[in-house]
């Protein structure tokens, strides 16, 4: 999807030793931020109150669906009869596929099984509040009707439909918000588009086909910016989010400023930290990684896959369990972040059954316990997440974080939620509680039967029933004042 797993553009990443298989830990997405910009962004000029109002829905949502879907779902991880390592949507780069050969996939792309109602309904059933879909990934193929460039799903394929428009209409009907991922920098089929280095792709462009050569600024002015204008104006009140990716040194402050001038025309828009050119955007984007202590005081969104790829690979069956997905969601919310969880439809437009099954199971838990996730603030405690080792080091030589998986906590103005992963027995103990506790009950108990709370110094003991109510996470609600 996003960052190839090595050190590039100031981003520390890791490569799996297993034949290019993507690993599920990319420790942060850190980009250079400048203190001054050629074009001031909304983040530079708004007041804290204005920012809070603009970010309010996003902070409330906590859980969204990422969709990676495009031409790369046809080869599905295989080229010339051989499996290609690394993530599915990078196959053109990973296999050094010539532009003409890759573009020849378009006439074969006819995803007649695609149904916007089905996908939006799946997101809603999962308890997700917004969707972000790849409008254009690094391969340069637009999944929308673009007049700016003919290499798109409406003009270049027999499908002749705009799935972005259909998703927008369905999101309005079902009450979800919709955002667009757009690869503004890398474009492997447009002359002048940038490329990250893979395999034997040499400096200075990392291109592998003469058809890719050209001027980056020309690409930006003739394709990327015109397409962003289309996306920002042709879909009514959507997008609410623009999700940029993989900036390179080609995205100078001046060129990024031209994009920011366009974004500024949409003052309610939220956009992430991956534009480039020194702009910080609104949201930090740890990829395949949950920061040990979150990013206090910052809006952040952990984007993660269910298996080991973003774009569909037919043979990637390494799906995380529902338990892992749910505990990731709870962990992220307890640290003040959002969880953007990916699906990768196949070339027919079908979502893999394993992904559907897991999302439906997550949704069942949220239907009962969503109050402990949506609109919550981070934990008032913190030590429950784990601690940094005094002896072990991580890959950067820093103290290694050792997570604990017994419980997490989220909060609201008048409640503390404790999500129990491990049932503690007949009572749950907190050493210190910074609020006055007035009552307690289990969220999954329909009667909200009161639990006995005993104060012990600055701490409390909550008496629990003998049996756990949910094997993945049972939520204690502590009423406070």
TrEMBL record:
The keyword Signal applies. One of its GO terms (cellular component) is lysosome. The record marks 303 as: May be important for catalysis. Residues 42-371 form the Glycoside hydrolase family 29 N-terminal domain. This is alpha-L-fucosidase. InterPro entries: FUC_metazoa-typ (IPR016286), GH (IPR017853), Glyco_hydro_29 (IPR000933), Glyco_hydro_29_N (IPR057739). Coiled coil: none annotated. Residues 1-24 form the signal peptide. GO terms for molecular function: alpha-L-fucosidase activity. Pfam families: Alpha_L_fucos. It comes from Granulicella aggregans. Its EC number is 3.2.1.51.
């Amino acid at each position: 999807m996003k960052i190839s797993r090595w050190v590039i553009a100031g981003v520390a990443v890791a490569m799996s030793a297993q034949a290019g298989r993507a690993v599920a830990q990319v420790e942060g997405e850190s980009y250079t931020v400048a203190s001054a910009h050629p074009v001031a962004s909304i983040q530079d000029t708004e007041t804290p109150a204005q920012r809070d109002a603009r970010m309010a829905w996003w902070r409330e949502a906590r859980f969204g669906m990422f969709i990676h879907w495009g031409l790369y779902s046809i080869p599905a991880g295989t080229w010339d009869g051989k499996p290609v390592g690394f993530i599915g949507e990078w196959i053109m780069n990973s296999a050094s596929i010539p532009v003409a050969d890759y573009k020849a996939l378009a006439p074969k792309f006819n995803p007649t099984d695609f149904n916007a109602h089905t996908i939006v309904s799946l997101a809603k059933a999962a308890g997700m509040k917004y969707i972000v879909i790849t409008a254009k990934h690094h391969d340069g193929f637009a999944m929308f009707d673009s007049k700016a460039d003919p290499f798109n799903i409406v003009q270049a394929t027999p499908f002749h439909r705009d799935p972005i428009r259909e998703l927008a209409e369905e999101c309005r009907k079902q009450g979800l918000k919709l955002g667009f991922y757009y690869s503004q920098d890398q474009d492997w089929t447009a002359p002048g588009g940038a490329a990250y280095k893979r395999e034997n792709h040499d400096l200075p462009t990392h291109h592998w086909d003469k058809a890719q050569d050209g001027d980056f600024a020309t690409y930006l002015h003739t394709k990327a910016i015109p397409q962003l204008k289309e996306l920002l104006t042709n879909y009514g009140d959507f997008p609410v989010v623009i999700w940029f990716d993989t900036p390179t040194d080609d995205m100078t402050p001046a060129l990024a400023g031209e994009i920011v001038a366009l974004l500024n025309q949409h003052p309610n828009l939220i956009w992430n930290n991956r534009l480039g050119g020194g702009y910080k955007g609104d949201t930090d984007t740890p990829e395949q990684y949950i920061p040990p202590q979150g990013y206090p005081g910052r809006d952040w969104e952990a984007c993660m896959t269910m298996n080991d790829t973003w774009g569909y690979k037919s043979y990637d069956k390494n799906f995380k369990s529902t338990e892992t997905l749910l505990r990731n969601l709870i962990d992220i919310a307890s640290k003040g972040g959002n969880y953007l969880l990916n699906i990768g439809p196949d070339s027919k437009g079908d979502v893999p059954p394993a992904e559907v099954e897991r999302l439906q199971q997550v949704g069942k838990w949220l239907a009962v316990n969503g109050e402990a996730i949506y609109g919550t603030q981070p934990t008032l405690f913190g030590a429950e997440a784990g601690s940094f080792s005094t002896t072990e080091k991580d890959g950067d030589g820093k103290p290694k974080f050792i997570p604990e998986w017994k419980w997490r906590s989220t909060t609201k103005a008048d409640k503390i939620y404790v999500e129990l992963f491990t049932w503690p027995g007949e009572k749950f103990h907190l050493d210190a509680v910074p609020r006055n506790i007035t009552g307690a009950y289990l969220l999954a108990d329909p009667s909200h039967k009161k639990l006995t709370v005993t104060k012990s110094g600055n701490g409390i003991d909550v008496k629990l029933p003998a049996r756990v109510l949910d094997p993945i996470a049972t939520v204690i609600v502590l009423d406070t004042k």
